[in-house]
C-alpha cells in the first residue's frame, strides 16, 4: 500500500491538487500549502485510486459501519465510488434542508442506531467532519469512524477523538512532504516552511490559531429543520415566528391565576412552564383551558416536574396520580441522578404521545451539585436518548449539537438573588455569554404589576440578545 500512496501523492502533485505558495485559507490564515482536491473529478483513474485507498484504509482499521456518507461536496464522488464498488449503501448529507417537501437533511435509507462512516478529502481542524456527524446523529445514526485522504496534522484527529470519532488518514502532511522531497519535487526550504506552519497552526487546546474561526451560528429556523422530534421542531418554529425565546414560569397556586397569566403573557412567550403540584385546585377543566390558550397563543406547555426516581416509579408519576402529566404537557424534565432508567421509564409513557423531555444538567441555585462530571454524564445520557431528550436545563451551552435546546432559569432584568439560594443573571448574560436558547423567567414577570408588559420587556431583551449572537 505504501508504494501506491507514494504514487498517489506524486499524481496529486502533478495535477495540482497539492500546491505550494502563499494561500489564504477559509479561516483567514495564510498557508504555504494548499490542497484542492476538487480537481480529481477530472482524473477518473486517480479518483478511483483515492476511493480504493480510502476503502482499504478503513477496512484495515477494523471500523464497522452500515453506510457511508461523504462530507459535501468534494468527498461525495469518493463516497459514491466506495459505495458502488463495495456494495455498501450511501447516504447524502444536504448542506441546507430543502424548504419544500420532506425537508430531509440526510437522503437515503438507514436504520436508526446503525453506524455510518464519514468520508472526507482533507481534514484541518476536523470541524466539517464534526458538523456532518452532528447532522447524521440528529437523525439517529451513530458515527464512530471517519476516513480522510489528507490529514493536515493540525490537531483535527485529536479534536475528533475528543468528539468520539476515530479518524484514519491515507496520508499526513509530514509523509507528503517526505515523499515530495525524496522525489525532488519541492526544495527543502519549502518543506521546512510547511512544517513550521503546521507546528504554529495547531487546533489543539491552547494552541488555536489567533484568528477568529468563522463557524456559522445557525438560526432557530435552521436548527428546527435539523430536529427530528416534533416538539423540538415546533418550539424552534414558534420561537422564529413569534420572535420569542422567552419561557414564563407560572409558579402560581390557583388555576385562575395560572390561566390569567397565560392569557396575558401568551403573545410574548414561546413556552409556559408550570409546577402543577403547587396548585390547590388542579383539574381536568384547568388542563382543557390551558391547552386552549396554548393553541390560541401558540406556546409549548412545559411541566417542570423534575422526575428523579427509578423508571417504574416515574412512569406512574408521569402517567397517573392527580396530574396525568403526560396527557397535557408537551415537555417535562428529569434529573440524570437515577441513571438512564429514569428516561427508559418516562419514554415508555411519553414516546407514543409524542412528548419530549429535558435533562437537568446544571442548576441556578447556589451550592448545587449539578456540576463537572455530573453535568458531562448528563449530556452523554441525553445523547443516548435523542428520541426523547430534546435539550437541557442548564446555565451554559453544553454541546455544539444544534438539535439540543439549552434553557436557562435564574434570569431577571434586575436583582441578583432571592435570599433562598436562587441566583440571577440578565437576559443578555444568559443568551450571549452563556449561550442559552430559551430564558426562563418567573417572578420577574408574574410579580410585576403588569405581567404582559414585563413579558414584552423580557421578550425584547432576550430576542435582541439572540439576534446579536447570530450576527457576531
Ligand atoms: O436550576 C433551576 C431549575 C429550575 N428552576 C425553576 O425556574 C423557575 C425560576 O423562577 P424565578 O422566579 O425566575 O426565580 C422556578 O420555577 C424554578 O423552580 C430554577 O430556578 N433553577
Automatic annotation (TrEMBL):
Q: Its annotated pathway?
A: Pyrimidine metabolism; UMP biosynthesis via de novo pathway; UMP from orotate: step 1/2; Pyrimidine metabolism; UMP biosynthesis via de novo pathway; UMP from orotate: step 2/2
Alphabetic keyword roster = Decarboxylase, Glycosyltransferase, Lyase, Multifunctional enzyme, Pyrimidine biosynthesis, Transferase
Question: Mind telling me which Gene3D superfamilies this protein's record contains?
Answer: 3.40.50.2020, Aldolase class I (3.20.20.70)
Keyword hit for Amino-acid biosynthesis: no
Signal peptide positions on this chain: none
Assembly description: Homodimer; dimerization is required for enzymatic activity.
User: What HAMAP family does this protein's entry cite?
Assistant: PyrE
* Full protein name: Uridine 5'-monophosphate synthase
Amino acid at each position: 500500500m505504501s508504494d501506491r500512496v507514494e504514487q498517489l501523492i506524486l499524481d496529486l502533485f502533478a495535477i495540482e491538487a497539492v500546491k505550494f505558495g502563499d494561500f489564504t485559507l477559509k479561516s483567514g490564515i495564510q498557508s504555504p500549502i494548499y490542497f484542492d482536491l476538487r480537481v480529481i473529478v477530472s482524473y477518473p483513474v486517480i479518483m478511483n485510486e483515492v476511493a480504493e485507498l480510502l476503502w482499504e484504509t478503513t477496512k484495515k482499521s477494523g471500523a464497522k459501519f452500515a453506510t457511508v456518507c461523504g462530507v459535501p461536496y468534494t468527498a461525495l464522488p469518493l463516497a459514491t465510488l466506495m459505495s458502488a464498488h463495495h456494495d455498501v449503501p450511501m447516504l447524502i448529507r444536504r448542506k441546507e434542508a430543502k424548504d419544500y417537501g420532506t425537508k430531509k437533511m440526510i437522503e437515503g435509507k438507514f436504520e436508526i442506531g446503525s453506524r455510518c462512516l464519514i468520508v472526507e478529502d482533507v481534514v484541518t481542524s476536523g470541524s466539517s467532519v464534526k458538523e456532518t456527524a452532528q447532522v447524521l446523529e440528529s437523525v439517529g445514526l451513530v458515527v464512530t469512524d471517519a476516513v480522510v485522504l489528507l490529514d493536515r496534522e493540525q490537531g483535527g484527529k485529536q479534536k475528533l477523538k475528543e468528539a468520539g470519532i476515530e479518524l484514519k488518514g491515507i496520508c499526513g502532511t509530514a509523509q507528503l512532504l517526505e515523499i515530495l522531497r525524496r522525489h525532488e519535487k519541492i526544495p527543502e526550504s519549502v518543506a521546512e516552511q510547511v512544517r513550521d506552519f503546521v507546528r504554529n497552526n495547531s487546533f489543539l487546546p491552547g494552541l488555536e490559531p489567533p484568528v477568529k474561526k468563522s463557524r456559522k451560528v445557525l438560526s432557530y429556523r435552521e436548527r428546527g429543520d435539523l430536529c427530528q422530534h416534533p416538539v423540538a421542531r415546533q418550539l424552534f418554529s414558534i420561537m422564529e415566528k413569534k420572535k420569542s425565546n422567552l419561557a414564563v414560569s407560572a409558579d402560581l397556586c390557583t388555576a385562575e391565576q395560572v390561566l390569567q397569566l397565560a392569557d396575558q403573557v401568551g403573545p410574548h412567550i414561546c413556552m409556559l412552564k408550570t409546577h402543577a403540584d403547587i396548585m390547590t385546585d388542579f383539574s381536568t377543566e384547568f388542563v382543557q383551558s390551558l391547552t386552549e390558550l396554548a393553541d390560541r397563543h401558540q406556546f409549548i406547555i412545559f411541566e417542570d416536574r423534575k422526575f428523579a426516581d427509578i423508571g417504574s416509579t416515574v412512569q406512574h408519576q408521569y402517567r397517573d396520580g392527580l396530574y396525568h402529566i403526560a396527557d397535557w404537557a408537551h415537555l417535562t424534565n428529569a434529573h440524570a441522578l437515577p441513571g438512564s432508567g429514569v428516561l427508559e421509564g418516562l419514554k415508555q409513557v411519553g414516546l407514543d404521545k409524542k412528548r419530549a423531555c429535558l435533562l437537568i444538567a446544571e442548576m441556578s441555585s447556589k451550592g448545587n451539585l449539578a456540576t463537572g462530571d455530573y453535568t458531562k454524564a448528563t449530556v452523554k445520557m441525553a445523547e443516548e436518548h435523542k428520541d426523547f431528550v430534546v435539550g437541557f436545563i442548564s446555565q451554559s451551552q453544553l454541546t455544539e449539537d444544534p438539535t439540543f435546546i439549552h434553557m436557562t432559569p435564574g434570569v431577571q432584568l434586575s436583582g441578583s438573588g432571592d435570599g433562598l439560594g436562587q441566583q440571577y443573571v440578565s437576559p443578555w448574560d444568559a443568551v450571549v455569554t452563556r449561550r442559552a436558547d430559551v430564558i426562563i423567567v418567573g417572578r420577574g414577570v408574574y410579580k410585576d404589576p403588569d405581567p404582559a408588559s414585563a413579558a414584552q420587556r423580557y421578550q425584547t431583551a432576550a430576542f435582541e440578545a439572540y439576534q446579536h449572537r447570530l450576527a457576531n
